[in-house]
Design brief:
Blueprint: H1 8-41, H2 49-56, E1 113-115, E2 118-125, E3 130-134, E4 137-140, E5 146-148, E6 153-161, E7 165-172, E8 176-186, E9 193-194, E10 199-203, E11 215-222, E12 225-227, H3 229-233
Antiparallel strand pairs: 1-4, 2-3, 4-11, 5-10, 6-7, 6-9, 7-8, 8-10, 8-11, 11-12
Length: about 240
């Protein structure tokens, strides 16, 4: 067996290796200590319910959640919206139909009735000497007497008839038309407006009733149909 000499080089290597081993050991111990301490100090953060709620509902100090307190002296009274609601149930009003004005009439002349209206029973005609219908009413009066309009209306026509002489026809409200037969003089013309009581002319002669005492012959139609003059005019 050979023995190496204890040279300076051998001593240097031996000294350096020892130091290296010591250094590596210290590094290993430090690494283990750092790992242990680092693991103990590590905290795993887990979201809590509180953090979630805070994220969904911002701090009440934020401006949109803040409540502004109004001093009592400037606060306006709160009005219940139901205070102005009527208890009466709503109902749509149906517009009322205009009421047609009812005309009023007067007698064309004051006098006795010598012959009344008849559309079914025959009456004696002194002029023709026979029995016939009488579709008007005869009011006795002296020839030349003033004849008045029975109501307000419009003169429809003024004609000369072979049987009834001069005839003034006046249209009144309610579909009523009055014929004044046996006129002498005439004060109106077609389309004139007249009022109840206006003098429209004077009485004259009636050829088909010339044998009777002087009178004015009045006929009335309602919507084109002959009817009793006194009944239609409300003068019965």
């Amino acid at each position: 067996m050979k023995y190496y000499k204890n040279t300076k080089f051998t001593k240097a290597i031996t000294s350096t290796g020892f130091v290296t081993i010591i250094a590596c050991a210290l590094i290993a111990v430090g690494a283990i200590a750092w790992f242990v301490l680092s693991r103990d100090n590590t905290v795993t953060e887990t979201p809590s319910d509180n953090s979630q709620s805070q994220q969904e509902y911002p701090d009440t100090d934020n401006s949109y959640n803040s409540v502004t307190v109004i001093p009592e002296e400037i606060q306006e009274p709160v009005t219940d919206v139901n205070d102005n609601v009527s208890d009466v149930p709503y109902s749509e009003e149906t517009p009322s139909e205009p009421v047609e004005e009812k005309p009023t009439f007067v007698l064309p002349i004051t006098g006795n009735i010598s012959k009344g209206y008849s559309d079914t029973a025959l009456q004696y005609s002194a002029t023709y000497g026979d029995m016939r219908l009488h579709t008007g009413v005869d009011i006795l009066c002296e020839t030349g007497s003033n004849i008045k309009s029975a109501g307000s209306g419009t003169v429809k026509s003024v004609v000369e008839d072979a049987n009834y002489g001069k005839i003034i026809t006046i249209e009144h409200l309610g579909g009523i038309t009055v014929k004044y037969c046996g006129m002498g003089s005439v004060n109106v013309k077609e389309s004139d407006k007249v009022a109840a009581g206006d003098v429209i002319g004077t009485s004259g002669e009636i050829p088909c009733e010339c044998a009777d005492n002087p009178h004015i012959h009045i006929e009335v139609t309602v919507d084109g149909s002959n009817t009793s003059p006194l009944a239609a005019l409300g003068l019965e």
